[in-house]
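Hey, I'm writing a tutorial for new members on how sequence and structure tokens pair up, and I'd like a real worked example in the thread rather than a made-up one. If someone can provide the structure for the chain below, I'll link this post from the tutorial.
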Amino acid sequence: MQIYLPIAELPISVLLVLGLSGAVGFISGLFGVGGGFLLTPLLIFLDIPPAVAVATVAAQVAGSSMTGVLTYWRRKALDFKLGGVLVGGGIFGTIMGVLFFNSMRRLGQLELVITLAYVTLFTCIGGLMLFDAVRAALRDRKGKPARLRRRAGMHPPWMGLPWRMRFYRSQLYASVLPIAGLAVVIGFIGAVLGVGGGFILVPALLYFFRVPPAVVVGTSLFQILVTMTGATVLHAVTNQSVDIVLAILLLIGGVIGAQFGGRAARNLNVGSFRLLLALLILSVGLRFAIDLFVPPAEPYSVVMPEGTR
């Protein structure tokens, strides 16, 4: 059963899209991260134009984040004050990312930029996470704590920068400058690659700012919801690349898969969780790296920048 995608301008199997989005939703529910970093490259591998894949997955990530935000809000596990700082920086980064996205698309270099960004970002993050997971496993086998505990009164230098603010729910007293700067980077990456950025934001809040885990996920989802909604609107208005038919199919499959992933996560221990997530992120980056070295089927092609005749 196939359906025609009006913006992507190609037919695609409905069952294939539902299956892929369901599998990514399962992984998202299993690891507690947005599935955009997997869904976007999978759509590109299915010959969906990169511009359409990025913009449409942004819509899917925004829609799927809504239920998570409502759930954590009801549990009172969401820091709106910290989320407001993250949203402010994220919106600025999103606007800059969309402007960069559109300029690369006009120059005909968008696909190369997306590929290089995935290779660099995911191999670096996946490699660091894999190193950290293996080190923690080795320390645990020797009977040592996974990480050395920080002594009371010791704080990283970036938390003492000017414009410090107290976030009561997150038990945090720190400068808003590094928090907003982190949000700007994540908003920019999300707009260019169509990812929510939770796989970056959650570890950063946990390790660099020592925000309690109970608050991190809900606050991260709140930031993702607002920035990805903004990215969707900007992509739709500026370059008309959001395919609503594809977005609906992705959302349906993702919601169903996330339910099963959440149930499976109850039986997954922390060590396995970190190791599998690191391998997952690293494999996506390596998959894009392979494309850079494999000779294309058509070695010569002409790319016409948009707006030229």
